[in-house]
Each structure stands twice: as structure tokens, then as C-alpha cells.
Design a protein that fits this description.
The structure holds 2 protein chains of 2 kinds. Chain A is α/β, with parallel strands linked by helices. Helix content of chain A is 47%, strand content 17%. In chain A, strands 1, 2, 3, 4, 5, 6, 7 and 8 form an 8-stranded mixed β-sheet that branches. In chain A, a hairpin with a 2-residue loop joins strand 2 and strand 3. Classes of the chains: A alpha/beta, B alpha/beta. Chains A and B meet through helix 7, helix 8, helix 9, helix 13 and strand 9 of A and strand 4, helix 4, helix 5, helix 6 and helix 7 of B. Strand 9 of chain A pairs antiparallel with strand 4 of chain B.
Chain lengths: 300, 286
């Protein structure tokens, strides 16, 4: 079986047997097995280790930004380029309609097959990707439209060209400008939140996170996942995110539509909440939100 | 390296310059053995290749500020261990060791001072404190300094010397990037100038936040400056890196910094910049 994680295997085996039973066996037997499958699924997903969550967040069949846009929005018009150097295919964005409302969407984009993975640089943006994103956010601000961003990147690309063209500057500028953008920004961490390369699209009024997404200061490998505190539950506790969006049983990759519906509900509610706030209120509250993150002590 | 200059056990591997006891020291940039007194006379710069030796925060303040003008702020602000972090050592133990080694509570020192009479707010990073890494406490001190500068309308100077985020505080250290950048937006709205001084090294989350956001960005010669570390880049692209890659002069050439200035000229440069901004604007502001 392709693209199957170790801890998913027993579940998929039961599912295969269940499918067989439905064809040939008795309905009672099938119902019993289905109940067993649900129990098993709950057990596995209730006890996921942080590393297993990293694997889910990176799952090759997980929905990516363009999938979410297609499932959630209408009339999407993709816009390209930073107007300075080029178009970074690791970041996508454009105009869209969400629940009858115009929004600007921006997000990291990973590739599905080898060719597209290379085209999208595995979701690792260059500076021009961040500059394109900022250009679109400024467009949203100019015309008073909310911004929705999707976060799913291993990190900003570490390469020669990226450094030559100011990767650090592009990220820093996005952070500064996003903290003061005069329209609502809703951030949704859908997969991997890889360090500064994620945060460069991640400064918003509300930060939502899918249940099995991860978000961390450094790429988590193996046991580092345990100590970094990168799961949605950890981040909610630390005050870094505002809301966890539950995934369907088995994870987002097993049910794109179900995932999109959960996101739709959360996104609609969040945008409604923010709609009543004026630019100054938004910016003031956003400042306060990031201002208070951190833990330290002070001797008087 | 000759045996008589070998590092003593326990000295950090990442320190660029090993200072042996005695009259002579080695410059890690050009690998020459140079006369210590000559280095000291030159604001701790190698007389052969002009690369600056790394210096601590207190020494930097002495070099830049009018004697006796420094008044420290938030001196008692320091890190906790929010994640209960432990890798090969406990974070708490690392913090304790860093405090003992440097005599500082944290990786940044902040306060106010004067340069040729110009009153400024200033932050200086201490590399010897866990590589100058940005913990919650560091982000908080920088943010407070920026907010103070905005409130008092004091020009701000931040001398960075940092490998980036402090991994031991996980996501909380990453968020300090947003926090400091947000504060700098407010400073910009107040039209208070911010001069970023980049020294060796300034990388990662520090370079990808406040260090890149100066109205004027000055770098010391030959400093390593960039987003990703050179080792990570070399491993990713599987090619040797070009000569001088991510050094100050490389950034100047690519338009990423305003100028590269030798350490002994830095105070005079800051004086000129401060004098420029000290004059009230003769024109109506937009």
C-alpha cells in the first residue's frame, strides 16, 4: 500500500475486511466489524505521539492550499508574481469568494507528484513568494477585503538565490506589515508550520489550526517532536493559536470534503467575529495578541 | 592550530576567536598570529585582515557610548523554562551556566545612552549567552526597548549578534519575531529612526525580524549575515558555497545592507546618522 503510515496499517486492514464482508458476509457481522473499526480508530488517534502527528501533517495525500481553495471557495482567480523578480510557485494566492464574501487568499503550496513537487519546490518559498503574498495582502487592504492564509511548509528555502535576494528581509517585512494590515487576517495552519517560513504568512487576528497539523521553531525530526511542543493542543495551551479545527476520523487525508466542511464552519464564524471590527481595533488587538506571547520572569 | 594555542576543554566550539593567554592571539578569519596590544588598540580588530574579533555586550557599549552615559533597563528580566526542555542538558542548567559565564541575566542588554551627546535607546546582543539566541525574555526586552524609544522619541540602535531563535523555547521563541516586528511598525509610525547594526553572526530568526527592519542597516566587515546557516544551505543544495557567501560584503553587493563600516569608525558613523535625524524636519510631514 502506498502512502500509508505504520500506525494506519491495522485500521486499513480492518477496513479492507469490512469492505469484503459488505459484499459477501452478513450485515450483523459487518456492523460488528465497523464498530470495532471505530473503536480502534479512536484509540489510535487519541494516543498519537507528536512524531505521528508530524507524519500526518506531512502526509502526501493531505489536502493542500489549492485543494482547500477549490473545496471552500468560488470564483478563484490566481494572481502571480512579486512585480520585482519572479513568480514563486511555492506560494499561491489570489481573489476568491467565500460564502458570498470577497476574500484574498494566500498560502504555501506543495506538489502532489514528482514534477509538481519540484515545480512547487516542496512548498519551500523563495523571497519572491513572500513578496507576492505581501503584495496580495496590500491589495486586500486597499480594497477592504479580509485575508485568509493557509500555512503548510517545511520552511523558507535555504539556498543561494534565496539568500542573495533577501530571504530574511522578505520574511521580516511580512511580519512587520502583517501586524499593521487594516483588514482582518485569518490564518489556518493546515499541515506543516515550519518556522519563520510559516510565520511569514502567519501573523493574523485569529490563528486556527487543523487537529493534526504541527507548528514549530525548527524542523522536527524523530524524537525532537516530543520536546518541541508542536501539536495543536500544545500551541493552544501556549496561547499561540486560538482554535483547533477537528479533522474527520482517520485524518484530513482520508476525507477532504469532511475536512473542508469543518474548516468552512470555523472560517465563517471567525470572519463573522472580525467583520464588526474597524481597522484600528483590528490592528490594536492584533498587536496585543502577539505582544503577550512569551514566558519570562522579572526580578524587581 | 599549534598545540600552544589549543582550546581548553569546555570552550564553546562555535566561538570564532580563541584567545590564548599572553601577548599573541590568533585571528580566526585570516589565521594569522597577531600582537594582542595591536588588536586592542584597533577596537579589537585584526591588524592583518581587518576582521573584527567578537566582543561582549558591555565592551560594545563602552566602544559606542559616551563614557558613563549608559543606563540599563529591564536588567532583571530573564528566561524561564516554559517547555521543561531537555536535550543533552536541561535548559535550566544551560541558563545557569550562561549566567555564570557572562555575568548577564540574558542574551541582550538594553538601556539608554549617549553618542556624542545624542540620547538614544540601545540594545546589544551578548553572543556568549547561548549564542545570543532569542528567547521570550530577549524578545520582550527588545520589544520594551522599541516601545520605550517610541514613547520617548529616542532614536533606536540595536546591535545584533545572534544565531537566531532559542530552540529550547520552541514556538514561543519563534513568536518573538512577530512581536519585535510589530513594535518596530509602531516605532516607524512615530517616525523615530531605527539603526540596525549587524555583527558576526546575525542569522535565523533575528535576521528575519528586527535586524532586517532598520531604516539604516550597517554591518561590520566580514560578518556572517543571512537567514539560513551556511551548513544547512550546503547540505540542501549539495554544492560548495561561493567565496564570501553571506558575508557583509556579499550583502552590500546584493543591496541588503546600506553600508559596511569598520568597528573603529562605527561610533563616528552613528554620530553622523544621529545628527542627521536630530534636526527637526523643515518640511511638513505627509
Amino acid at each position: 500500500m502506498r502512502d500509508v503510515l505504520d500506525f494506519e496499517k491495522p485500521l486499513l486492514e480492518i477496513e479492507a475486511r469490512l469492505a469484503e464482508l459488505r459484499q459477501t458476509g452478513s450485515p450483523e457481522e459487518a456492523a460488528r466489524l465497523e464498530e470495532r473499526l471505530r473503536r480502534q480508530q479512536r484509540k489510535v488517534f487519541a494516543n498519537l505521539t507528536p512524531w505521528q502527528r508530524v507524519q500526518l501533517a506531512r502526509h502526501p495525500r493531505r489536502p493542500y492550499t489549492l485543494d482547500f481553495i477549490r473545496l471552500l471557495m468560488e470564483d478563484f482567480v490566481e494572481l502571480h508574481g512579486d512585480r520585482a523578480f519572479g513568480d514563486d510557485r511555492a506560494v499561491v494566492g489570489g481573489l476568491a469568494r467565500f460564502e458570498g464574501q470577497s476574500v484574498v487568499v494566500v498560502g504555501h503550496q506543495k506538489g502532489r507528484d514528482t514534477r509538481e513537487k519540484i515545480l512547487r519546490n516542496f512548498g519551500m518559498p523563495h523571497p519572491e513568494g513572500y513578496r507576492k503574498a505581501l503584495r496580495l495582502m496590500k491589495l486586500a487592504e486597499k480594497f477592504g477585503k479580509p485575508v485568509v492564509t493557509f500555512i503548510d511548509t517545511p520552511g523558507a528555502y535555504p539556498g543561494i538565490g534565496a539568500e542573495e535576494r533577501g530571504q530574511a528581509e522578505a520574511i521580516a517585512r511580512n511580519l512587520r506589515e502583517m501586524t499593521a494590515l487594516g483588514v482582518p487576517i485569518v490564518v489556518l495552519v493546515t499541515g506543516e508550520g515550519g518556522s519563520g517560513g510559516a510565520l511569514a504568512l502567519g501573523v493574523g487576528d485569529r490563528v486556527l489550526m487543523l487537529e493534526h497539523a504541527v507548528y514549530s521553531v525548527i524542523s522536527p525530526e524523530g524524537c525532537a517532536a516530543e520536546i518541541l511542543r508542536l501539536t495543536a493542543a500544545d500551541l493552544l495551551k501556549l496561547g499561540v493559536i486560538d482554535r483547533i479545527v477537528g479533522e474527520p476520523p482517520g485524518g484530513a487525508h482520508r476525507d477532504w470534503e469532511g475536512t473542508a466542511e469543518a474548516v468552512r464552519g470555523a472560517l465563517r464564524a471567525t470572519l463573522d467575529e472580525l467583520r464588526t471590527l474597524g481597522p484600528d481595533e483590528l490592528v490594536g488587538q492584533r498587536y496585543a495578541k502577539f505582544r503577550r506571547i512569551g514566558v519570562f520572569e522579572e526580578a524587581l | 592550530m599549534a598545540w600552544w594555542f589549543r582550546r581548553r576543554e569546555g570552550e564553546g566550539r562555535s566561538r570564532k576567536v580563541v584567545i590564548a593567554e599572553g601577548l599573541w592571539i590568533k585571528c580566526e578569519a585570516c589565521r594569522e598570529i597577531v600582537y594582542r596590544a595591536e588588536v586592542e588598540r584597533n577596537a579589537r580588530t585584526c591588524p592583518k585582515c581587518r576582521a573584527p574579533f567578537r566582543i561582549g555586550a558591555r565592551e560594545r557599549l563602552e566602544l559606542l557610548l559616551d563614557p558613563g552615559s549608559f543606563e540599563e533597563r529591564d536588567a532583571g528580566l530573564r528566561s524561564q523554562d516554559p517547555l521543561g526542555f531537555k536535550d543533552t542538558r536541561r535548559y535550566r542548567d544551560r541558563l545557569r551556566a550562561a549566567r555564570e559565564k557572562t555575568g548577564q541575566e540574558e542574551a541582550v542588554v538594553s538601556g539608554t545612552g549617549r553618542i556624542e551627546g545624542h540620547q538614544i535607546a540601545i540594545c546589544v546582543f551578548e553572543f556568549a549567552f547561548m549564542g545570543g539566541s532569542m528567547a521570550s525574555a530577549v524578545g520582550e526586552k527588545v520589544t520594551r526597548a522599541v516601545e520605550f524609544a517610541a514613547r520617548k522619541r529616542l532614536p533606536l540602535v540595536i546591535v545584533s549578534c545572534s544565531g537566531g531563535a532559542r530552540m529550547q523555547e520552541g514556538i514561543l521563541s519563534l513568536m518573538q519575531m512577530a512581536k519585535t516586528a510589530a513594535a518596530l511598525h509602531r516605532l516607524a509610525e512615530e517616525r523615530v529612526p531605527y539603526i540596525a547594526v549587524l555583527t558576526d553572526p546575525t542569522t535565523g530568526g533575528v535576521m528575519a525580524s528586527f535586524a532586517s527592519l532598520g531604516d539604516i542597516i550597517v554591518a561590520e566587515p566580514k560578518a556572517l549575515i543571512g537567514f539560513a546557516g551556511p551548513r544547512v544551505i550546503a547540505e540542501t543544495i549539495r554544492q560548495p558555497l561561493p567565496d564570501g557567501f553571506q558575508r557583509s560584503e556579499f550583502l552590500l553587493e546584493h543591496g541588503m545592507v546600506d553600508l559596511v563600516t569598520e568597528r573603529k569608525e562605527l561610533r563616528e558613523l552613528l554620530r553622523r546618522i544621529l545628527a542627521f535625524f536630530a534636526e527637526p524636519s523643515a518640511l511638513p510631514l505627509p
